[in-house]
């Protein structure tokens, strides 16, 4: 197995810390809003990593956190210590307690995660349940001389970590030389890039809704009352569930310069060893060639996908067609093409089940080996999917083809073995619409075809196309 390691900027042979076992941490959602499909693509990419290692008989433990406190809106915009707490912003928007906000959007996230057929992590820790672990890590950093307190916060001193930028490769020598100049938000910071481990409930955070007492001292607050910085959350939770050092850390490419750089600095300074041996970063999903935007109505959620008569697995199949390190562009046309391709696979699976040769099938070793070679090359799912399609077109027996399809689907996650086509009684009204839609498609009148599809949808059915044929299913409730 070879993985592209963002830390070394090269593809490397994977060697686990403990033979046959893998500890993997994946940066999870900030649960203040429904996750858009770009966030869910990241979940599917991590799922494909987990499934690939499991397919190759590794015992993998996946940890994915919920950030339900302390994630400021400035975290990915250059200054990680500025902005408004996203949980508090959501609480103000919906006029309910942050705890209820978190519960609501965790449930939504878990529903979407399951619908996309991603495997549940072995551990799903929430930040608010691990405040003590965070405080203990900050205490360790202070004791070791890596952190210091100001009246506003406790900061990590980046000048004490000689390889602070080893992941990002940034040159901050000139910025470090500005020591003492401070920043706009806290003039007591030693260096502008020093990042907060703990915010005191004072200054811009005086009205913070989620706070805890701490042993840290500030002349402006009693009992060290405040809340953790975003980065310390992941370090504390990964340490609790995976130990001082673990095998794989995965997250979005946007986390390299700030969040992951800071995670490494504080974890390695506190624990004295390398945090993660391999760093995997997935690229972004764009929409119609541009960035997803709420204001432009392109920050789509899974509910938006389903509202247009697509399934979550249609979206998963779309995601399978791009490598995790490659950018991917979402369009409704590309999703429709994915739906058609997946429908074709399902029909082929049903035909194989009905074949006279379906008994006694064996997994084809040649195609299995080809598949393993592709996933072993930095989890190359698009090429692995191509092997699957080649196998389905091959002249091996139907029984072997079905057994092999089920085997490879352990990684692809398309639920082939569970797929069932429900028999539908087509009445005259439905048949008339289907006939009209077929005629509209024959003459390439796509607007009329879409209108008729919507009419069929209103009757409670989902229609799709496999080649020249229409197929129809009852819509999920």
How is the largest sheet built, in terms of strand order?
Answer: 4-3-9-10
Kindly report how far apart the N and C termini lie.
41 Å
Shape label: globular
What is the CATH homologous superfamily assignment of the largest domain? Answer: HUPs
The CATH architecture of the largest domain can be named as 3-Layer(aba) Sandwich
Summed up, the domain count is 3
Q: Low-confidence stretches at least 5 residues in length (pLDDT < 50)?
A: 174-184
User: SS-based structural class?
Assistant: alpha/beta
Number of helices: 15
Task: Give a brief description.
With 477 residues, the protein is of the alpha/beta class. It has helices at residues 37-55, 86-94, 98-115, 131-143, 173-176, 230-242, 256-271, 302-307, 312-320, 332-353, 365-376, 381-393, 398-412, 428-442, 446-458; strands at residues 2-5, 10-13, 21-26, 59-64, 147-149, 153-156, 195-200, 226-228, 246-252, 276-282, 285-287, 328-330, 461-466, 469-474. The chain is globular, with a radius of gyration of 25 Å.
């Amino acid at each position: 197995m070879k993985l592209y390691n963002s830390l070394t900027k090269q593809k490397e042979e994977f060697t686990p810390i403990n033979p046959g076992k893998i500890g993997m941490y994946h940066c999870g959602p900030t649960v203040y809003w429904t996750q858009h499909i770009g966030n869910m693509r990241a979940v599917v990419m991590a799922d494909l990593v987990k499934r690939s290692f499991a397919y190759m008989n590794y015992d993998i433990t996946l940890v994915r956190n919920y950030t339900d406190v302390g994630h400021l809106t400035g975290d990915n915009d250059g200054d990680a210590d500025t902005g408004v707490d996203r949980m508090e912003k959501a609480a103000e928007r919906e006029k309910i307690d942050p705890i209820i906000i978190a519960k609501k959007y965790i449930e939504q996230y878990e529903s979407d995660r399951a619908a996309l057929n991603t495997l549940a992590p072995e551990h799903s820790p929430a930040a608010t349940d691990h405040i003590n672990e965070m405080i203990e890590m900050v205490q360790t950093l202070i004791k070791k001389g890596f952190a210091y307190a100001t009246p506003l916060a406790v900061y990590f001193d980046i000048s004490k970590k000689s390889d602070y930028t080893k992941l990002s490769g940034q040159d901050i020598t000139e910025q470090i030389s500005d020591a003492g100049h401070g920043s706009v938000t806290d003039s007591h910071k030693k260096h502008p890039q020093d990042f907060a481990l703990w915010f005191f409930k004072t200054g811009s955070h005086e009205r913070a809704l989620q706070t805890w007492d701490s042993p840290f001292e500030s002349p402006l607050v009693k009992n060290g009352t405040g809340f953790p910085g975003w980065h310390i959350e992941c370090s504390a939770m990964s340490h609790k569930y995976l130990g001082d050092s673990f095998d794989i850390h995965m997250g979005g490419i946007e986390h390299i310069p700030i969040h992951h750089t800071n995670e490494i600095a504080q974890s390695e300074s506190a624990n004295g060893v390398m945090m993660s041996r391999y760093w995997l970063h997935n690229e972004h999903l764009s929409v119609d060639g541009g960035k997803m935007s709420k204001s432009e109505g392109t920050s789509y959620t899974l509910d938006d996908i389903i509202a247009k008569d697509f399934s979550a697995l249609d979206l998963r199949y779309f995601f399978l067609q791009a490598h995790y390190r490659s950018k991917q562009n979402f369009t409704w046309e590309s999703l429709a093409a994915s739906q058609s391709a997946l429908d074709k696979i399902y029909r082929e699976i049903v035909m194989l089940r009905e074949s006279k040769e379906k008994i006694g099938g064996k997994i084809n070793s040649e195609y299995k080996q080809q598949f393993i070679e592709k996933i072993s090359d930095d989890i190359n799912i698009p090429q692995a999917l191509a092997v699957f399609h080649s196998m389905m077109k091959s002249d091996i027996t139907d029984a072997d083809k079905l057994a092999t399809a089920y085997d490879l689907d352990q990684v692809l996650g398309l639920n082939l073995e569970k797929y069932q086509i429900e028999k539908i009684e087509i009445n005259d009204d439905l048949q008339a619409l289907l006939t009209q839609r077929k005629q509209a498609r024959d003459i390439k009148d796509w607007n009329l075809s879409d209108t008729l599809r919507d009419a069929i949808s209103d009757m409670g059915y989902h229609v799709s196309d496999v080649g020249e044929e229409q197929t129809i299913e009852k819509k999920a409730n």
